[in-house]
Amino acid sequence: KRFGVIDESNLMHHEVNTHGWAQSLLELTYRFINKFISEHGAPPFEVMQFRFVHAVLAYAQKPPDVSGKSQSSHCAVYMLEELLEKEQFVKYIHNTGSIPLPKWHETGFDIAVFLCFIQHVQYQITDRMIFISDFQG
């Protein structure tokens, strides 16, 4: 069952807003890393480049209410996200901790370790207030 269009719209706006903040935090993290590299030289590991999928809100419209009873022509709201062409979904870090989910010998371990590093940087540059907790892809 769907929420009413007003409640659904509020929830979706919150979701897209959170998505935007996460993108900004990731960009801030890469700025920090790049500044550090420019001052101290390249690290002994690969600085992998990640991004969030593109996402927007889309409103489904209904025909105008000629009787004047309805104040909106919206009948539903959707969050449209970029489709990733990937064969396998990988969850790199669980929500409850900064420990890589893939084991050291499994595919994706190096990515998970780098994402944990990104979490650590985010936690430090925000004075221990925030980090992205659920990297997956």
TrEMBL record:
<dbReference type="InterPro" id="IPR004166">
    <property type="entry name" value="a-kinase_dom"/>
</dbReference>
<keyword id="KW-0808">Transferase</keyword>
<dbReference type="Pfam" id="PF02816">
    <property type="entry name" value="Alpha_kinase"/>
</dbReference>
<dbReference type="GO" id="GO:0004674">
    <property type="term" value="F:protein serine/threonine kinase activity"/>
</dbReference>
<feature type="domain" description="Alpha-type protein kinase">
    <location>
        <begin position="29"/>
        <end position="137"/>
    </location>
</feature>
<protein>
    <recommendedName>
        <fullName>Alpha-type protein kinase domain-containing protein</fullName>
    </recommendedName>
</protein>
<keyword id="KW-0723">Serine/threonine-protein kinase</keyword>
<keyword id="KW-0418">Kinase</keyword>
<dbReference type="GO" id="GO:0005524">
    <property type="term" value="F:ATP binding"/>
</dbReference>
